[in-house]
Design goal:
Chain B: It is a multi-pass membrane protein. Chain B: It holds the Pfam family FtsX. Chain B: Keywords: Cell membrane, Membrane, Transmembrane, Transmembrane helix. Chain B: This is Putative ABC transport system permease protein. The structure holds 2 protein chains of 2 kinds. Chain A is α/β, with parallel strands linked by helices. Chain A has a single domain, classed as P-loop containing nucleotide triphosphate hydrolases (Rossmann fold). Chain A is about 35% helix and about 25% strand. Chain A contains 8 helices and 10 strands. Chain A is globular. By secondary structure, chain B is an alpha+beta fold. Chain B contains 14 helices and 13 strands. Chain B has helices spanning about 1-15, 15-55, 70-75, 85-95, 130-135, 150, 160-170, 205-215, 250-260, 275-320, 320-330, 335-370, 380-405, 410-415; strands spanning about 60-65, 70, 100-105, 115, 120, 125-130, 140-145, 155-160, 180, 185-195, 220-225, 240-245, 270-275. The two termini of chain B are about 30 Å apart. Classes of the chains: A alpha/beta, B alpha+beta. At the A-B interface, helix 2 and helix 3 of A face helix 1, helix 11, helix 12 and helix 14 of B.
Chain lengths: ~240, ~425
């Protein structure tokens, strides 16, 4: 089990009212899985992804990543977890506009303290894996949306993360580019990368091997629930 | 770190106009300070040169009675002041920083000196040993200098400096002419001149007296000290003049010589004292530095304003780059990384401003010195200090924006439009 959420709640205080964003979420993901979490906007799926991605902490409940309790981590430890264990892919790519594709991809390697020579080697390799070996020195503005997203994916996998976390990875793309990104995800998953993808699009979600649905902060996915019943007998 | 500096320069270059305007406060401040410091340094060097005499480095150690120069003409022979023997002169030469030493007797207000009916007004007469001319840097222009025989035979010979020559002879041939000193006939054998004449800038009465003490307008007549007792009296007290090895050693060497001579003096109110021109130069320099120090403080205000400008633009930059900061934090940059990135950017920005400011300051100092005819001298420590100081301003005023950047919440930052 590389990821395990148990009875996770997330509340936001609004004035005197406490709003439950996530209610009693339990979720387990095994190595090599390809999971889609579906849900309409406002369902709490982004909050869930922020918690999985160690950007946010739950109000209560527990979260273990690679068997370690993430909730006890300091700010620096959380940064290092994001650096070494999690690769983020965002809807709006979030590439640095003035840097080339190569420089964008090796950014996490700078934070990992890797020498420039090795950075370039590894970033080149990652870009080749996403099929952009011939676009190393292009700036984001010179690339199409689909290509930009593939640069972002290369950046997410360059440090060999445990989990690739994708938030609406096709949301800003046309359908054929989206399809390419999905093919890439399939390929990366086949190579052994664990993928958790968040989307509101059922068709995109259908590419994943397992689907879960989040609605009003409650995880109700059939597969997810089934999984829970078999592993968590106390529940 | 190098990566950060490279990215900072890239960032600064991509916003050329904004970066330049941000740096402007620092540039103006540093330029003002550099030009003020250069002017102070130039003025100080000028004061030192004018007052002390560049390359001459002579210090007179004279006998004083209760702060007044001892005048044998009015005061008679002093009690408790021994004759300075050759052994004492030798031990003076052994003092650190003393290159040459000479003993002389003198009348600062010489009377009874005539050539026919022309009298020497306001002149001085010196009875000198064989080292005097070389110590003080006199050169014989006409005729000859004193030779061994002049001393041994107590010859009544005299050498005039050019001022004395002009006032007594007015351009006529002086060699082998006879002048009268206190009723005694002396033969003029030569005319001498100081090898490096310096013309001091006289700004005050104090400067004037200093100048008058160092030289004389009325002219000087030199005779061998051996012959001094012919027009004057035996066993008059001697004064000492030394040449220091360097200008900076003048004060200490002069003081040491005075101490040595005073160790032989038994009188309680008559003492040898070094005329410390360097000390006087220093007090003048301090005066000019003190006024300029205030200018430096005023210029520093512009650095403060420049620093606030940097802080302002860095805050704008943090807001503009919120998404970038959010992304960097999301992909694993620690707080310290973000802090370092923005601090480096601020420091690079202000250091660059400092370097441009130094260059502008040097140019400004040159222009000021051309216009106002005052010298300027570039101070290397001031340049290094300025660049380091502007770097420190960047770090100081970059701190608040950098902390703000480092503490951004990545979730909010990523969502920032």
């Amino acid at each position: 089990m590389i990821l395990e959420l148990e009875h996770v709640y997330k509340d936001y205080i609004q004035g005197k009212m406490s709003v439950h964003i996530l209610k009693d979420i339990s979720l387990s993901v095994e190595e090599g899985e390809y999971l889609a979490i579906m849900g309409p906007s406002g369902s709490g799926k982004t909050t869930l992804m922020n918690i999985i991605g160690c950007l946010d902490k739950p109000t209560s409940g527990s979260y273990h990543l690679n068997g370690k309790d993430v909730l006890t981590y300091s700010d620096n430890e959380l940064s290092d977890t994001r650096l070494y264990n999690i690769g983020f892919v965002f809807q709006s790519f979030h590439l640095l506009p003035k840097q080339t594709a190569l420089e964008n991809v090796y950014l996490p390697l700078i934070y990992a303290g890797i020498s420039k020579k090795e950075r370039i080697e590894r970033a080149t390799e990652a870009l080749e894996r996403v099929g952009l070996g011939d676009r190393l020195h292009f700036k984001p503005t010179q690339l199409s949306g689909g290509q930009q997203q593939r640069v972002a994916i290369a950046r997410a996998i360059v440090n060999h993360p445990t989990i690739l976390l994708a938030d609406e990875p096709t949301g800003a793309l046309d359908s054929s580019s989206g399809e390419q990104v999905m093919e890439l995800f399939q390929k990366l998953n086949d190579e052994g990368i664990t993928i958790i993808m968040i989307t509101h699009d059922a068709e995109i979600a259908s590419h994943a091997k397992r689907q879960a649905i989040i609605r009003d902060g409650i995880l109700t996915g059939r597969e997810a629930l089934a999984y829970e019943k078999t592993t968590d007998s106390d529940n | 770190m190098l990566e950060n500096i490279r990215l900072s320069i890239q960032g600064i270059w991509s916003h050329k106009m904004r970066s330049f305007l941000t740096m402007l406060g620092i540039i103006i401040g540093i330029a003002a300070i550099i030009s003020i410091v250069s002017t102070i340094k130039g003025t100080n060097e000028q004061i030192k040169q004018n007052l002390v005499g560049a390359g001459n480095n002579t210090v007179e150690i004279k006998l004083y009675q209760n702060d007044w120069e001892y005048e044998a003409a009015y005061n008679g022979l002093p009690q408790g002041v021994p004759i300075i023997t050759d052994e004492i002169r030798e031990s003076i030469l052994e003092i650190d920083g003393v290159e040459k030493a000479s003993l002389y007797l003198n009348r600062n207000y010489a009377e009874g000196i005539y050539y026919h009916n022309t009298s020497l007004n306001g002149g001085k007469i010196y009875g000198i040993d064989e080292q005097y001319f070389s110590t003080c840097g006199y050169q014989i222009q006409k005729g000859r200098g004193f030779v061994d025989k002049d001393y041994k035979s107590f010859r009544k010979v005299a050498i005039l400096d050019s001022a004395a020559y002009n006032s007594l002879f007015g351009g006529n041939e002086p060699i082998d002419q006879t002048i009268e000193i206190q009723g005694e006939p002396f033969t003029v054998i030569g005319v001498c001149e100081k090898s490096n004449t310096f013309k001091p800038v006289i700004n005050s009465m104090e400067d004037y007296y200093n100048y008058m003490a160092a030289g004389s307008d009325g002219g000087i007549i030199f005779i061998p000290d051996a012959s001094w007792s012919i027009p004057y009296s035996y066993d008059e007290p001697q004064n000492l003049i030394i040449r220091a090895a360097s200008t900076d050693e003048m004060s200490s060497a002069g003081r040491k010589c005075a101490d040595l001579l005073n160790s032989y003096v038994t009188s309680s109110d008559i003492k040898y004292k070094a005329s410390d021109l360097l000390e006087q130069a220093k007090s003048l320099q301090e005066l000019s530095a003190a006024t300029n120090q205030q200018l430096i403080w005023i210029a520093s205000i512009s650095l403060l304003v420049g620093g606030i400008g940097v802080m302002n633009i860095m805050l704008v930059s943090v807001t503009e780059r919120t998404r970038e900061i959010g992304l960097k934090k999301a992909i694993g940059a620690r707080k310290r990384r973000i802090l370092a990135q923005f601090l480096t950017e601020a420091a690079v920005l202000t250091s660059l401003g400092g370097i441009i400011g130094v260059a502008a300051g040097i140019v400004m100092a040159q222009v000021i010195s051309r216009i106002s005819q005052t010298p300027s001298a570039i101070s290397v420590p001031a340049i290094i200090f300025s660049v380091l100081f502007s770097m420190a301003i960047g770090i100081l005023f970059g701190l608040l924006p950098s902390i703000k950047a480092a503490n951004l919440n990545p979730i909010d930052a990523l969502r920032h439009e």
